[in-house]
Amino acid sequence: MTGDRIRLKAFLEQSEEFLESARTQFPDAAKLTIPDVLMQEPRPLTPVWIDNPDSPTREERRQIEDDFFGPNGVAHFAYAGERSKKTDRHQLFALAEQLNGRLPLAHAVDHPMEQHPQARMRFGPSDGTLKIYNLPIPLEVDKYREVAESKELFAAHNDGLGYAGAVSAAMLVLDSAPAWGGYTCFQQFIRLAIALANSDARAFRALFTPDAIVAVRPRGKGAIRVASPVLYVNDHGHPQTFFRIGSGEYQISWRKDLPALNQARELLVRLAQPFAPSSTFVHMMHPGQGVLIRNPQVIHSRTAFEDDVYGTQRVLARKWFVASAADSAYKHVPGMNVHPRYSRLYPEYFAPEYLSGEWHFDQSAGRNVRIG
């Protein structure tokens, strides 16, 4: 056996650790199969109604925690009352502070785009969140715009491309509603992984290939190229997924020389579509509706939407949270937070230097370059 085959075999051994941990976390899914998954209809998530956003009750907090750690990995909430006092911080911070403890919300990420001039011009001084809305650009103007800044379909993904898989929770809260559309759809990939392992062990194992999937954002300030396994054991020893479907500026490619990986890809892409079997969804149409997403395990997408012809537009506030203070310092990197037992086998992808600082994908050179 060659050296490359030996290290690949050692890297793929994490699949057993992943599966044992996943089955312990979701014992009800231990015998789940893909035919079981395909028979499950998509389901809307019921919101947890919060009477006082500044001080949710113990029961309201418990329900949100149960939903976040539950089989769907998403907590849907809605504010039933107004905030008691105005503040220059977004209302989601008050909820995050109340939930911090059992949920991984202690450390918020200050994203540079939260200070974007366009957002400040439209919405005033930053309230600490990134604003997601349709940024109209005249057709005759050749200006870069990410798919998140459009009203088009934003295909399935985890948040945080370039953040090394460290985003432990993503919170989205609706500030202003669209005229129609804008469904947010979710799929719990760790439970899907259990079902795949029970149905096709080779396809499941192939998803741990170190460069199974490559995601490229080719231009703009956020340009980056990330190669990663689709499933892996993260630096905290927990099962995690990295997955994207190409849309807008995002270019996604997969290893083409592994038939078992191709089988797994076809299945996951099918199950990552909006309203796919076993998926869940929300339709946020009232300010104060929001979701807390277990980002390392759950992928989400957003359907196309239209804004009100009278000028009201869909505006979503987004905030990322990480598990440690060290990760809260903003970074933009090509590596992933694969556990050191396995990452050391592929330093060309996961070496420590690829997990810190600021990197930029140089499209002309076809590689990432460290710039900070």
UniProtKB/TrEMBL annotation:
GO MF terms held by the record: dioxygenase activity
- What domain of life is recorded for the organism? Bacteria
Pfam families linked: TauD
Q: Does the keyword Iron apply?
A: yes
Q: Which Gene3D superfamilies match?
A: Clavaminate synthase-like (3.60.130.10)
Which residues does the UniProt record annotate as the domain TauD/TfdA-like?
142-318
**InterPro entries given for it?**
TauD-like_sf, TauD/TfdA-like
- What keywords would UniProt list here? Dioxygenase, Iron, Oxidoreductase
**What residues form the membrane-spanning segments?**
none
The protein depicted here goes by the name Taurine catabolism dioxygenase TauD, TfdA family
Q: Which organism is it from?
A: Rhodococcus koreensis
Q: What is the lineage of its organism?
A: Bacteria, Bacillati, Actinomycetota, Actinomycetes, Mycobacteriales
